[in-house]
Amino acid sequence: MPVENHSSVTEFVLTGFPGLHQEYYGLVSAVLFFVYLITLIANATVIFLFATNHSLHKPMYFIILNLSVCDILFSTTTLPKIISRYWFQSGSISFTACFIQMYFVHYFGTAVAYILFQMALDRYLAICHPLRYSHILTKSNILILSITAWIIAKASPLMMVIRAYPLPYCASNIITHCFCDHIGITVLACTDRTPYAIPAFVFAMVVLLGPLAFIIFSYGSILIAVYKIANVQSRMKSLSTCSTQLIIISLYFLPRCFVYLAQNVGITFSADVRIVIIMLYSLAPPMINPLIYCLRTRDIKHMLMKRCNDYKIVCDVIDIDSVYC
User: Fold this and answer.
1) How far apart are CA 24 and CA 71, in angstroms?
2) Structural domain count of the chain
3) Could you tell me the CATH number of the domain that includes residue 178?
4) Among 39, 138, 212, 269, who pairs with 273 as Cys (CB 3.0-4.6 Å)?
5) Percent of the chain as helix, strand, coil, to the nearest 5
6) What is the edge-to-edge ordering of all strands in the sheet holding 11-14?
7) Which ranges carry the G-protein coupled receptors family 1 profile domain (predicted)?
8) Which residue range forms the structural domain that includes residue 182?
C-alpha cells in the first residue's frame, strides 16, 4: 500500500560540505564555477567540432557526442545550485524542484553508463570483429542504440521519484549533500525506507554492473585478440585505440565501485569525505573527458589544431588590414 503524503516539509536545504568554514565559501564557489565553465567550454567545443566536420561523423565520435551532451546536462543539473549555495548563501530548494533535480541526476548518470557500454561495444567490434564492424555499427544502428539508451535510462530514475515523492517528510529538511539524490532525500522520510531503498539499490546495481560486466568482457576479449597479433607495432597500435575509452570508462566506474564496496565491507567515511569523493567522481569526468578526446583522439586533435590555425590566420589578416588602415 502506498504511503499517504502528510509532508510538512515545503523545501529542502542543501548543506554542501558540512565541515566547511564560512571563510572558504568564496573560494569553493569560485572553484566550482571554474569547473562548470571548463566543462561547458570543453564539451561545447567537442560538439562544435562534430557539427562542423563531416569527417567526424563516424560511430565512435557519435558516441563521444552523446557523452559530451550528457556531461553538459549533468553538470548543469547539479553545479549551478551548489555554486549559489556558497556564492549567494542560497542553499534552499523547493520540495518539487529537489525531486526534479534527483530525477535528472540519476537519469543522466544512468545514460552515461549506457553510453560507455556503447563505447566498449565499438572497440570490441573494431578489434575482435574488424570485418563485421562497418556492417554492424552503421550510422543508423548507432543512432538507434543511442536513442534506445536515452529512453531506457528514464525507467530507473522515474521509478525512484514515483516511489519517493509520496513519502511523508515531517522532520528535518536538511540534505547532507551538494545536490538532491535518492538516498539524501529518502533518509529524511518519517517512515521505514527499507521497502523503497532496496528496489532503488537493485536498480542502481543493474545499471552499474550490467554495462560494467560487458565492458570487462569486451576489454578482456580485446586483450586476448591483441595478444595474438604477432607484429609488436600492430599490437601497440590496437591497444592505443582503446586507451582513450578505457581511461574514460575507468573514471566513471572505478570510484563508484570503490564507494559501493567500501560501504559493504564496513569502511565508513565522514560526511565531508564521502561528499568530496562523490563530487569528484560526479563532476571531474565531465570536465576531463573532452581533454582526453582532444589529446588522445587523432581526428579530434587534428580538427582542433586546424581550427586554431585557421583562427590564427584570420587574426593575422585582421592585424595586417588594421596596419594598412
Assistant:
1) 27
2) 1
3) 1.20.1070.10
4) 269
5) 80, 5, 20
6) 92-94, 11-14, 174-175
7) 42-293
8) 11-315
